[in-house]
Amino acid sequence: MLDAVISAIRAVAQQEIVPRYLRVARQRKADGSLITEADLATQEALSCELRKICPGAVVGEEMTEQEQIDQWLAGDAGLWCMDPIDGTSNFVNGLPYFAVSVALMRQGRSILGVVYNPVADEMFYAEQGGGAYLNGEKLPIKEHVPLLRSAMANVDLKRLSAKLAEGVCTKRPFSSQRNFGSCALEWCYTAAGRFDLSLHGGQKLWDYAAGSLILQEAGGHMCGFDQDDFWAEPLWQRSAIAALDPGLFIQWRDWVRAHR
């Protein structure tokens, strides 16, 4: 099944996303976020292909909220969750940091995840219990574990509370901070060891469904602001504290919670 999903994602990305890169018009959704015809065409094409691989419900970012809820409730035994283009703002502005993200979920947990950046041709993927990979190479790629004070952190500041955002900026326990605008890729970069730490104040289901499994299968660790069990956090707006190394994760988790 994993090989079929990878092939479908690669084919749809080449057909629907790559030809529109730097050439597509944009619109604003009701929440102010961007949407393009590439998002819609990719979601439609992928929905068809994924249902051929495993019939069932599909939750996509570009559905209405009610459609998403209905599909979620119908898909406890098996559900595809996708973000057709995670990082649409980057996509429309010509920044080569965006991805297709697809997960297969059962009983509310991800059992298969694939994240593909078509510009870099980087395919991250994992199955539950089978490890995580980037283009056939087992993750993590980089295993050097720095001290917390010398770590590279991925932090999405805009979704943090004012207190925590200020603490990250003025009392940062790490060396350097980045945020590139694609949650799915940020999970994968942490799984690969490109980031040592990650922090997000509230991700949607399609933001974390695939990437969190890839990090977990790479040996990484994650939790929420209030729950040590990441999956116990609220479904539709889930906070995330993550790191690859277990010791670093504990230090990072404790620092974040102490500065909330």
Question: What would you say this structure looks like, in words?
Answer:
The chain is an alpha+beta fold and 260 residues long. Helices cover 36% and strands 27% of the residues. The protein is built from eight helices and 14 strands. It has helices at residues 2-17, 37-53, 65-74, 88-92, 162-170, 183-192, 205-217, 246-258, and strands spanning 26-28, 34-36, 57-60, 79-86, 99-106, 109-117, 122-127, 132-134, 137-138, 152-155, 176-178, 197-203, 221-223, 238-243. The protein has a seven-stranded mixed beta sheet, with helices on both faces. The chain has a five-stranded mixed beta sheet with strand order 11-10-12-14-13, sandwiched between helices. A hairpin with a 4-residue loop joins strand 7 and strand 8 (132-134). Helix 1 runs antiparallel to helix 2 and helix 6 runs parallel beside helix 7. The relative contact order is 0.13.
What's the short version?
This protein is α+β, with helices and mostly antiparallel strands.
Helix content: 25-40%
Uncertain segments are: none
- What fraction of residues sit in β-strands? 25-35%
Going across the biggest sheet, name each strand in turn.
3-4-5-6-7-8-9
- The count of strands amounts to 14
User: If helices are DSSP runs of H or I spanning 4 or more residues, what is the number of helices?
Assistant: 8
Give the overall pLDDT as a whole number. 92
Radius of gyration: 17 Å
Q: What structural category arises from helix and sheet content?
A: alpha+beta
**What gross morphology would you assign?**
globular
Question: Terminal Cα separation, in Å?
Answer: 42 Å
List SSEs in N-to-C order. Answer: HEEHEHEHEEEEEEHEHEHEEH
Give the biggest beta sheet: 7 strands, mixed
